[in-house]
Design the sequence.
């Protein structure tokens, strides 16, 4: 089993959208049942809350229900439980890198480049934006979800690419 943790700031916009898109992709792939996906935030302000209504509406428009997800803050145990801790943007990467025990740091990465998605490395924060910003996030997380499945499939499920 490969376990992936997707991390953003609040765990109510980008990472729950990413979790929904990636779970759907995995479910429809030969990796179904072999990869677990969860998400968390570097901040705890929204802990216990459902995703932002705009994120729920956007995902629903693409056929994915994320309404039952609940926000949580990243915790120490996550660095032991997950094979990869994949961050939405460089700020998240910086914050997670400071929390991570040294032994876990090689398993902390910026999600889009890790997956091999072309374009900007950061998943832009849509929180202060509008519906169009959420749609842009969805388009990026769909690309990244597909690229993640490809990477894991190529690596035999572990995500570790032998060079
Ligand atoms: P997220 O978006 O990191 O994609 O979940 C945000 C959600 C909440 C806040 C910032 C970004 N906030 O400042 O409360």
Sequence:
């Amino acid at each position: 089993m490969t376990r992936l943790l997707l991390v953003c700031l609040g765990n109510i916009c980008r990472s729950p959208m990413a979790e929904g898109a990636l779970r759907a992709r995995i479910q429809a792939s030969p990796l179904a049942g072999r990869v677990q996906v969860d998400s968390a935030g570097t901040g705890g302000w929204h802990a216990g809350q459902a995703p932002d209504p705009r994120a729920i509406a956007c995902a629903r428009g693409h056929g994915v229900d994320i309404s039952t997800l609940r926000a949580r803050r990243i915790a120490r145990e996550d660095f032991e439980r997950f094979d990869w801790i994949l961050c939405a943007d460089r700020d998240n990467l910086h914050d997670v890198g400071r929390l991570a025990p040294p032994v876990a740091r090689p398993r902390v990465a910026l999600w889009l480049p890790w997956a091999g998605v072309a374009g900007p490395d950061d998943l832009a924060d849509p929180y202060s934006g509008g519906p169009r910003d959420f749609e842009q996030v969805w388009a990026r997380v769909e690309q990244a979800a597909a690229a993640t499945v490809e990477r894991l499939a190529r690596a035999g499920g572990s995500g570790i690419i032998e060079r």
Q: What stands out?
A: The longest helix spans residues 131-154. The chain has six helices and four strands.
